[in-house]
Automatic annotation (TrEMBL):
<comment type="similarity">
    <text>Belongs to the short-chain dehydrogenases/reductases (SDR) family.</text>
</comment>
<dbReference type="InterPro" id="IPR011284">
    <property type="entry name" value="3oxo_ACP_reduc"/>
</dbReference>
<dbReference type="InterPro" id="IPR002347">
    <property type="entry name" value="SDR_fam"/>
</dbReference>
<comment type="function">
    <text>Catalyzes the NADPH-dependent reduction of beta-ketoacyl-ACP substrates to beta-hydroxyacyl-ACP products, the first reductive step in the elongation cycle of fatty acid biosynthesis.</text>
</comment>
<dbReference type="Pfam" id="PF13561">
    <property type="entry name" value="adh_short_C2"/>
</dbReference>
<keyword id="KW-0444">Lipid biosynthesis</keyword>
<keyword id="KW-0443">Lipid metabolism</keyword>
<comment type="subunit">
    <text>Homotetramer.</text>
</comment>
<keyword id="KW-0276">Fatty acid metabolism</keyword>
<feature type="domain" description="Ketoreductase">
    <location>
        <begin position="3"/>
        <end position="176"/>
    </location>
</feature>
<keyword id="KW-0560">Oxidoreductase</keyword>
<dbReference type="InterPro" id="IPR036291">
    <property type="entry name" value="NAD(P)-bd_dom_sf"/>
</dbReference>
<comment type="pathway">
    <text>Lipid metabolism; fatty acid biosynthesis.</text>
</comment>
<dbReference type="InterPro" id="IPR050259">
    <property type="entry name" value="SDR"/>
</dbReference>
<protein>
    <recommendedName>
        <fullName>3-oxoacyl-[acyl-carrier-protein] reductase</fullName>
        <ecNumber>1.1.1.100</ecNumber>
    </recommendedName>
</protein>
<dbReference type="GO" id="GO:0004316">
    <property type="term" value="F:3-oxoacyl-[acyl-carrier-protein] reductase (NADPH) activity"/>
</dbReference>
<keyword id="KW-0521">NADP</keyword>
Amino acid sequence: MSRSVLVTGGNRGIGLAIARAFADAGDKVAITYRSGEPPAGFLAVKCDITDPEQVEQAYKEIEDRHGPVEVLVANAGVTKDQLLMRMSEDDFTSVIDTNLTGTFRVVKRANRGMLRAKKGRVVLISSVVGLLGSAGQANYAASKAALVGFARSLARELGSRNITFNVVAPGFVDTDMTKVLSDEQRQNIVAQVPLGRYAQPEEIAATVRFLASDDASYITGAVIPVDGGLGMGH
């Protein structure tokens, strides 16, 4: 049965792979994007998740076209890497506002329809960095670690309503964001990964789609690492 699926930040990289995975399965997929030209084949809604009014308008458009959101993948995020002593207040708060508070906004709004339907699937995209830590990424790591507590609290709060909340923690993924690294930087990263390679975006997408499937109906509050073993033990 075709479901109404929303992927925030679904215009490129991991988000686009996730959107394509759901579309290939026959779901009605909406994506949000902040800038640039969105990819074809989806209901693309321009939305800055740091603006509550834009979030509300995006949901109204999606609900008018696809019906209430049944599967939400909160993927939109930003980085502003900097060593602590050079990190500005804005470097810290803007990353938290997008990655954590922005996720709060889109999850809260999606749950309006999920509570009425007494069912729903929410998947938050965190990062291995949120569990492992990374020098120069205190803001990003804090925001991604916080998603775990957020999801697990909601799993307890809304489990009785048949709404599941799970977290996927990708490792290093072969996207435009990592392609800008030098060959030396890429080699240093791969050397830390037991499987000895970067992930493909489609590998993250497959895990997300599983968590939204009937096969995962008894999984909630889980953190699923898709990191080639980089963060094991964390």
